[in-house]
Amino acid sequence: MDRIALVVGVSGITGSNLAEELVKQGWTTYGLARNPHVSLEGLRPVAADLLSPECLSAALADVAPTHVFFTSWMRMETEAENIRVNAAMVRNLLDALAPKKSVQHVALVTGLKHYLGPFEAYAKEGFLPETPLREEQPRLDIENFYYAQEDEVYAAAARDGFTWSIHRPHTVIGKAVGNQMNLGTTLAVYATICKETKRPFRFPGSEAQWNGLSDVTDARVLAKHLIWAATTEAAHNEAFNVVNGEYFRWKWLWKRLARWFDVEPVGFDGTVHPLEDQMAQDGPMWREMAVRYNLAEPDLSRLASPWHTDLDLGRPIEVMTDMSKSRKLGFTVYQQTEESFFNLFTQLRNDRLIP
What we know:
Layout: E1 4-8, H1 13-24, E2 28-33, E3 43-47, H2 53-59, E4 67-70, H3 79-97, E5 105-109, H4 113-116, H5 145-160, E6 163-169, E7 172-173, H6 183-197, E8 201-202, H7 207-211, E9 213-214, E10 217-218, H8 219-231, E11 238-242, E12 248-249, H9 250-261, E13 265-266, H10 275-278, H11 283-292, H12 306-313, H13 324-328, H14 337-350
EC number: 1.1.1.-
InterPro entries: NAD(P)-bd_dom_sf, PRISE-like_Rossmann-fold
Protein name: SDR family oxidoreductase
């Protein structure tokens, strides 16, 4: 049977890497975004606003996917607004597709805020889970837009009869421009600025993150995981953590990242040094660097998301995830984390996003 994929959020880190893998595997692949400026050969772009049911119905009039991969979200001022907006995006999309009766499986990408709490209470006392994080851990007793998105998928699945999978990556490492959470590119830009200004490449986060164990999710691993769960019967109607498959400590990795950029690494010195503060005045200088080095993106805010990197690296506990559930069902893809970063940095340089 023909497999027809609809990737929602195709311009982001997760969506773009997923679309590339789907096309490579021979799927008919549609990519939906508000402005789907994706140059991937073989991708069929769909421009639509997820908050407009009328726009969605028109944009999807001739699209009847068998598999939907939802990788999109919008950041709002409060968690109540996050819930209202992000739940509506999932609901509107699945409502628009329901009359077609074509959807067999829906995969939803959320993340570790499922365990750590929403932005307003992120990794705060009273919400600190036991690690390694496991899928069996219950929801926190607090509002969370990830829970609202899940509930929309569950309700539509009960109504329309499709299967589902929930995917909870840790920090996703991969290339994208203009997205809201991008630790890998943020660190690349920060290191580039440090080299240009001869500033030290200072670790911005907490002692717990510096010394503790951590993991991340390569966008290519996540893409393979999404397709695996969508096409593996034993993985249907399940939630999964998904990470590279190894643990590391930032005090080990930081020196290696610094060596790649030829900058001086400075580790945790007893004080948190948020990147939002360190990079607050760097926008004009980046524009000058873009001219000097002929870079493709002069707007620093479209590359770096220091607020999100500060959230990740400022957590008061070590955070790592358990992959046993996926492993037991047959998903064995592994990625060395050091290479995830180096591959990203090379791609950014090749695409003239860093000098």
